[in-house]
Design brief:
36% helix, globular, 14 helices, 383 residues, Endonuclease, Chain A, 17% strand
Length: 383
């Protein structure tokens, strides 16, 4: 009985070995674990080469300790060796390599900027941890904080490359979602840090690295002007949470923003009837609501604010409308709003919110929106 039982176990054992041998040159199991991939191989070490997954290049295979995997363990199973390999995907290794090379401070533009300030007689502190956002340069006595932001990390690279949006910068990139989340998070922290400093009475300047490289003396001049008490950039209004409400209508945009702690400093619309309804919804309307065609409204009448909102007419953009696009009689009011922003110059709000139908971007296959800089003269509505 015992001998028969042992023979049966031996037969089962040999059968298992045959099965395992069949698997020895194949991938047995994949487990995707976040940015790590687990590969379990039933093989001898020599046969690992035959098991190279198709998406792993020859340069990354066979596995080399410290180069292309996080861990490798082995154990004996029925006379064969089980290798449990966890390696980083190529995209993740690329991200890790990039992040290791990033300097959090003392970048070349920062050093160039600091040296130029020193030559002009300004003395400063560098990246104090006690201040929100750790400004790159601080003049404590003057309560002036200066940031030197890299375009890539702080959301300006897509503009330098003349792309339409940040999303276009990472089109076709395997790690697109990672980078979008990372850079958007950086941009949000920049705004929070700026607002926190301003709420404590600091003047804040932010320069792009490209500005330092292309116009160092101009950036230094702006810093000296701010140190002498000259008005700072439009970002000085970031902490105030004030807004200018263009195409205000009866006040729906204002209603939503005020619930979030914003206050209206200016409102504009063309229609006197809408003004009457707006006045019924909000007090002191006459102090900040201007009834005038946006094409004729002087930019000097618009106060400096944190945010400009524009819910301009959709008549020429919606499927139910004439589809004349941004040069149509009503929807061309958009360009009046753009004109005002341009003429505000350095007072231009740091944040702009535009609300409209999807046709705003798709009308005329998007040519109207993309060609905004060379807008033809539109027909105008007058009140």
């Amino acid at each position: 009985m015992g001998t028969h039982h042992n023979l049966k176990l031996l037969a089962i054992h040999k059968l298992m070995i045959r099965i395992m041998n069949i698997m020895a040159s194949k991938l047995a199991l994949w487990n995707v674990l976040g940015d790590m991939t687990s590969i379990q191989l039933y093989a001898s070490r020599d046969s690992i080469q035959a098991c190279r997954p198709k998406n792993i290049s020859l340069d990354d295979w066979p596995l080399v300790p410290g180069k292309n995997f996080g861990s490798i363990t082995q154990q004996n199973v029925w006379g064969l060796t089980l290798f449990d390999v966890r390696y980083r995907s190529p995209a993740t290794r690329d991200i890790s390599a990039i992040m290791r090379k990033v300097r959090s401070g003392d970048t070349a533009p920062e050093i160039k900027f600091r040296k130029a300030l020193w030559r002009r007689g300004l003395r400063y502190r560098v990246s104090p941890r006690s201040l929100p956002g750790k400004p790159d340069v601080v003049l404590p006595g003057l309560k002036l904080a200066v940031f030197v932001d890299g375009e890539y990390w702080h959301g300006g690279q897509w503009q330098r490359r003349k792309l339409r949006a940040l999303e276009d910068q990472f089109a076709g990139t395997a790690s697109r979602n990672y980078w979008l989340s990372k850079i958007r998070g950086n941009m949000e922290r920049d705004c929070v840090a700026t607002a926190a400093l301003q709420s404590k009475g600091w003047t804040v300047l932010r320069f792009w690295e490209s500005e330092i490289n292309s116009d160092l003396e101009g950036c230094v001049d702006k810093t000296i002007e701010a140190a002498d008490g000259a008005p700072g950039s439009a970002f000085q209004h970031l902490a105030s949470k004030s807004f200018a409400d263009f195409f205000a209508g009866i006040g729906l945009m204002r209603l939503g923003l005020e619930r979030q702690g914003w206050h209206c400093a200016f409102a504009n619309d063309l229609d006197p009837a809408k003004y009457e309804m707006y006045s019924g919804n909000f007090e002191e309307t006459s102090q900040h609501y201007v009834v005038q065609d946006v094409h004729e409204l002087p930019a000097s009448d618009v106060p400096s604010v944190t945010l400009a909102t524009a819910a301009f007419p959709c008549n020429d953009l919606s499927l139910a409308g004439s589809r004349q696009g941004l040069t149509g009689e009503s929807s061309s009011a958009f360009w009046g709003f753009v004109r005002i922003l341009r003429e505000m110059g350095g007072r231009k709000p740091p944040v702009v919110l535009i609300e409209n139908v999807p046709g705003f971007l798709t009308s005329h296959i998007g040519r109207g929106f993309q060609g905004g800089a060379t807008r033809p003269e539109p027909a105008r509505l007058h009140g």
